[in-house]
């Protein structure tokens, strides 16, 4: 799996050495911000494990986490002449898996999640960008997954937390600088499981998945908005699985026009393709993905160009640039009259009359996102 730096300048993945043994894996760094992409191999003193997580930084170094002897050993890899330079960052003791989160918007910090099943908690660590190696940030009760940044400063991190007491999964926010307990961001109904898939700090667009409509469906909302979460029919085609993987940046305060790249797959026939969706349109736009596309990986530019990395035998590193046209906007249909919001206490309110949600200032001058607690459930057909 390839990962991309916060500013889109570099990407990194683990690849098998050509003609080598099955376990001869090494780190490969791609440069994406030049006229043509190119790759630099970063082999270490010994082969890498194929499941070691890697994350590129905006300065071109690549973070790798290697598991050995009950510890994750963290290091930064970088080209140094014909050799690979390596800067050890320390180690974390763990009996479970470590998962690197998407890099912070500054491109210099990387955080990681480590589950502590014995304690029923998940530890959040700053594993790169701190002053003295890995630094503990907080411990969150329950099992955490996901990971998306809600602000351009890289302070508010959204995580999907499964409550061990209720079994429900909801999105919470963590202030990685101010600390404190996480606050709930997303709860559509009292009993629904609601997870955040993608977030765009510029437009405020949130892509979510929830079983509030009766089954898991992809929907969208706006950070800080009083409008309901909507579940468009275009994002729920029969027999097709959809996964959003990239959101267009730079669309300041215009979430309806913000483009979202989708990976679509039809498991029964083994077909996979790319499409683009905007809230202001009722259909998805199919996009021809390049041969050898690294499925589920891509990046938008603010100008509306979708960058899709690919690798073939003829071209081991390539980048397809697709300028996606913007269709004429279509007015959003009103929420159906049957939409019933959740009201604390288990009572039902008339459709369209959910309790108001307001922003609350956080400590140290940072504004918390408006929670989507008790948000009316709506659907656009």
Order of helices and strands: EEEEEEEEEEEEEEEEEEEEEEEEEEE
Q: Counting H and I runs of at least 4 residues, what is the number of helices?
A: 0
Q: How many beta strands in the DSSP annotation? A: 27
Structural class: mainly beta
Strands of the biggest beta sheet: in what spatial order?
A: 13-14-15-16-27
Q: Please state the average pLDDT score.
A: 86
Our estimate of the beta-strand percent is: 35-45%
Commentary on this structure:
The radius of gyration is 21 Å and the shape is globular. Helix content is 0%, strand content 42%. The protein is an all-beta fold and 381 residues long. The chain has a five-stranded mixed beta sheet with strand order 13-14-15-16-27, with no helix packed on it. The chain has a four-stranded antiparallel beta sheet with strand order 1-2-3-4, with no helix packed on it. A four-stranded antiparallel beta sheet has the order 5-6-7-8, with no helix packed on it.
List descriptors.
381 residues, mainly beta, five-stranded mixed sheet, four-stranded antiparallel sheet, 27 strands, 0% helix
Please sum up the structure shown:
The protein has 381 residues and is an all-beta fold. The protein is 0% helix and 42% strand.
Topology:
Blueprint: E1 3-4, E2 10-16, E3 25-31, E4 38-42, E5 54-56, E6 62-68, E7 71-80, E8 83-93, E9 98-100, E10 110-116, E11 121-128, E12 135-141, E13 143-149, E14 156-162, E15 169-175, E16 183-187, E17 194-199, E18 205-210, E19 217-222, E20 241-247, E21 260-266, E22 271-277, E23 285-287, E24 299-300, E25 305-310, E26 318-323, E27 372-373
Parallel strand pairs: 16-27
Antiparallel strand pairs: 1-2, 2-3, 3-4, 5-6, 6-7, 7-8, 9-10, 10-11, 11-12, 13-14, 14-15, 15-16, 17-18, 18-19, 20-21, 21-22, 22-23, 24-25, 25-26
